[in-house]
Each structure stands twice: as structure tokens, then as C-alpha cells.
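retry 2 of 3: previous attempt timed out while embedding magnesium ion. Reduced batch size to 1 and resubmitted. Inputs unchanged:
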Amino acid sequence: MSTLEIKGLVASVAGKQILNGIDLTVRSGEVHAIMGPNGAGKSTLSAVVMGKPGYEVHAGEVLLDGVDLLGLPTWQRAQAGMHLVMQYPSEVAGVGLADMLAEAYQARGRSAATLEAEVSDEAGRINFATALLDRALNVDLSGGEKKRNETLQLGVLSPSIAILDELDSGLDIDALRDCARRVEAATNESNLGVLAITHYVRLLEELKPDVVHILAGGRIVKSGGPELADELERDGYAAFV
Ligand code: ADP
Ligand code: MG
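retry 2 succeeded.
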């Protein structure tokens, strides 16, 4: 069992305060959706939790099983069990997917002996073309292929808590279903806890959220059940901003 606790998080980027006090707790096996208008601070929240450079934390805590993540470099946050599927996955020329995963395994003290079989099993589960496995990380992949690639990494590395920053952006309907179902399966198979940032109910139909939060103006302004997502789909954010 793992618990990610975000408490009273206030943070700024480029001298502008974006997060104005975020409180959020995600436990193993739970799916929390975060919805909110453009510019609300959703990606900023994921960046601050993962330790992306350039963000300044003014108050609050981010704890994974009681360990303060804010004091750790990003790689140690990942080692502790955090994983981010980025809204815009980075292309890393010259670094192969298998090499990257082998390094990640080594850093976690896991044997890479079964890695190749696991990668090919994961690729099959999400219909990721095996011909793409030999490419440099995300280089020359389409938007949808990049997100499948990111989902494959999540499946192989099996983190405790994953943040998905608009997993659905750039995905066609089939790819969205494949990726979302894989993440949903992980919540059962390996007790993954998920913080899913999204604009679309379609993702949430596959990735059944336990809780839906609305983030606006750097604050969680409302939390509720899945019906909150349907309400937003119907009425928009006007009532919340
Ligand atoms: P969301 O993901 O909810 O659409 P973001 O967290 O990306 O919103 O952005 C929140 C606000 O922070 C926006 O006004 C954005 O322009 C600003 N912002 C984000 N990152 C930076 C940055 N590196 N430099 C300056 N402003 C930034
Ligand atoms: Mg964003």
C-alpha cells in the first residue's frame, strides 16, 4: 500500500504563483481525476510533484508513504515509486527504450534478465508495434505512438503512483482505449494509484475514477464522484471559475 499526500502546496514558476494551496491524497488502487480549464495549474502540479526544475515551492508538503518528496531529485522520486506520463513526451535522441528501461531497473535494484520479455508482453497488451521498440526514445513517433510508448514504460516499471498529464491528448479512439485500459488494469493487478489529468469524459469511461476534482485558479474548488465529470461535460467550467 502506498499513499501520496499533497498538503497545502503553494508553488510558483517564473515569479508567478500558480498553485495556491492544493490538498490531495491518492492511495494505492485509487483513481483520482483532475479536470480544469486551460492554465488552471494542472501541469504545474504534476511538475512540482515530480521535481521539474524551475518551480519554486513556497509552502506545503508532498509525501509518499510519509517521505518528503520535495527534498529529493526527480530520479529519487521515481525510485521511490512515482511515475509521470508527460503531456508532451520528450524525444531523447541516441537513447533506446530498452537501454532506458534497463537503467531504470538497475537503479531500482531489479534484475533486467526478464526485461525483454516484459517489454514485448507490454507492447502486445497495448498494441504497440514491436518495430518501434528499437527507435530512440520517442524520436520520430507519432503523438499516439508516443503515448503508447509512455504507457508501455508505466506497465513495465510498475510504479506505486502514476500521474497522467493528459494521456488522452493526441490519441485516437483505439489508442485511447488501449492505454486507458492498461492503466485501469494496473490499478487492479499491481494496485497502482492514479492521478489522471484530463479534459475528457471518454478517458474516464475506461479509467473509472473514484474521485473527480476540479482544479481552477490553482486550487481544488470541488471534489465529487464520476458524475462531476458528466456535469462538466454538460455545463462547462463556468460555475467553478
Ligand atoms: P494547465 O496544465 O492547467 O493547462 P499549466 O500548469 O500548464 O496549466 O499552467 C498554469 C499557468 O502557469 C499558465 O498561466 C502558464 O502560462 C504558466 N506557466 C506554466 N509553466 C510556466 C513556465 N515555465 N514559465 C512561465 N509560466 C508558466
Ligand atoms: Mg497542462
